[in-house]
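User: Quick one: structure for sequence A, then sequence B.

Assistant: Sequence A:
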Amino acid sequence: MCNKFPGPTSYKDMLVFRLQGCPNSPGAGLHTQNQYDRVTPMVFLQAVLPYVQILLSVLLIGAVLLQRTGASVGGAFGSDNFSTGFHTRRGLEKTLFYATIALGILFALSALVNLLIS
C-alpha cells in the first residue's frame, strides 16, 4: 500500500485517493465513479462532510459564546437568582437564539449523516 498521492492530476483523483487509498490496491475505485467518469455524490459527501462539521462547530461555539448569560456566580451555589434569569428576548438576541438552535440541529444532523455513510 502506498502512502503518497501519485501526483496532482485532478481533484477527482485526489478525492478517490483520499477515500480509497492507493489506486492500484485491491478494491480501489469501487463505487467512486459512475459511468460518466464523475465522482459519485457519496464520495463527494464523504470528502466534504468533515469540513462542513468543522465550520458548523466553530459557528455554534461562536453563537453560544455571544449569547447573554443570566446566571451569576451565586446561582451556582444555590442562592436565589430568579430576578436576573428570565427576560424576553428581542431583536438580535432572539435571532441569535434561533440561529444557535438551528446550528445545533444542523450539526447533529451532519454527525448522524457522517455516522450513516462511514
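Sequence B:
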Amino acid sequence: MIETGGIYHISQNELPTGHEIWSNRPGIVISSNESLQTEGTVKIVYVSSKDRNRPNSVRISDKSFFHKNRGKKYREHIALCSQIHTVDKCRLESFYGKVSGKELKEIESAVKQTLF
C-alpha cells in the first residue's frame, strides 16, 4: 500500500526538457493518504545524492531507507522539494522505505514554501 512519506524507485517516463529532473530515480510520495486512496496518480519529489544548494531542499538520511546499501557507509540524500511531480501509480516500482516523521515535516514545510 502506498503511503505519504514512502520512498519508491520511479520508473523512467520520457526525456526531461530544460530544467526538469530525470526520472528513473528515487522519489518521496507527498500526496495525502486520503488522496492516495481515491486517485490513480501520486505527487512526489525526487531524491538526489548531489547537494547543489538548491532552494527548498531537505537532507534525508540514507540510513532510513536505502537498505540495499547495508554494510556501506551511509550518506545523506536531498529531497528536491522545489520540483513537485505527478506520476501514475504504475511508475512506482521498488519500495525503499519511509522517511522519518521529522524529515516528512521538513519536506512538507519546504513544499509549502515552494508553492506559496
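The domain at 6-115 is CATH 2.30.30.110 (SH3 type barrels.). Residues 60 and 103 are 7 Å apart (CA to CA).

User: Thanks, that's what I needed.
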